[in-house]
Amino acid sequence: xxxxxxxxxxxxxxxxxxxxxxxxxxxxxxxxxxxxxxxxxxxxxxxxxxxxxxxxxxxxxxxxxxxxxxxxxxxxxxxxxxxxxxxxxxxxxxxxxxxxxxxxxxxxxxxxxxxxxxxxxxxxxxxxxxxxxxxxxxxxxxxxxxxxxxxxxxxxxxxxxxxxxxxxxxxxxxxxxxxxxxxxxxxxxxxxxxxxxxxxxxxxxxxxxxxxxxxxxxxxxxxxxxxxxxxxxxxxxxxxxxxxxxxxxxxxxxxxxxxxxxxxxxxxxxxxxxxxxxxxxxxxxxxxxxxxxxxxxxxxxxxxxxxxxxxxxxxxxxxx
Length: 320
Known about the structure:
- By secondary structure, this protein is of the alpha/beta class.
- Helices cover 28% and strands 20% of the residues.
- An 8-stranded parallel beta barrel has the order 1-2-4-5-7-9-10-11, surrounded by 4 helices. Strands 6-8 form a two-stranded parallel ribbon.
């Protein structure tokens, strides 16, 4: 394996970006409410049932979420980042509708015969911090209103939204349950980023985190139960990884038919370094494969043709 080069400079920039983000949108911790409690009403004007928290209907012009994410050879293309700042990725550089216009142009480059593309917003909603915060968990949540804007945009444009978790010292299951109100929407999936899952005594940005398969299984079991109880379409579940030790006992991660599970390989560098990392980490017998492209950190950014040539085959690419 050609390991991803140390992220000292990048992590320092991330820490600064988090401080700036706090000033822009305000640090917010969702209350530990009943996961079945309804979220806020949609600002897009769709119908929402206040009794059961059912998501608003998409506009008639929006694409209905597919029963299975990867039907018809579908290829997913995502912009990654958080709301209100470009410090953590391209998605936050512009408002959601402007970001979608750019994403749609990028996604069109990946379309091939019998392989239509589906745009995705991957929004970091629980963000790792270099300081403990009031809960001592080294992470904070975006305000609900900021996330709702991306849900509404996903509905308008027929895209998917993935909620990305960087939980600090909180476990993934606890962090995911705070977003139950959003995950009940048929357009919304979940991403787990073990790089930012800290053990006791660890601080985000100082070490690269990890998670055990048992914690992943608890989180996916909860998400699959939510999906089934609310009779939702199959949900996208993304596991980020760029080192083998980021997910311990990965062979014990359980498949879930109601979840489209993607192992997303995130190493950056030259194409050769990225492909070495991919080859060392990939578990195509267990997951569909994902791959990340970094606008600023990759050397000789791989084009769609190069990505489509990767084996095992990639079905989901994201830009940071």
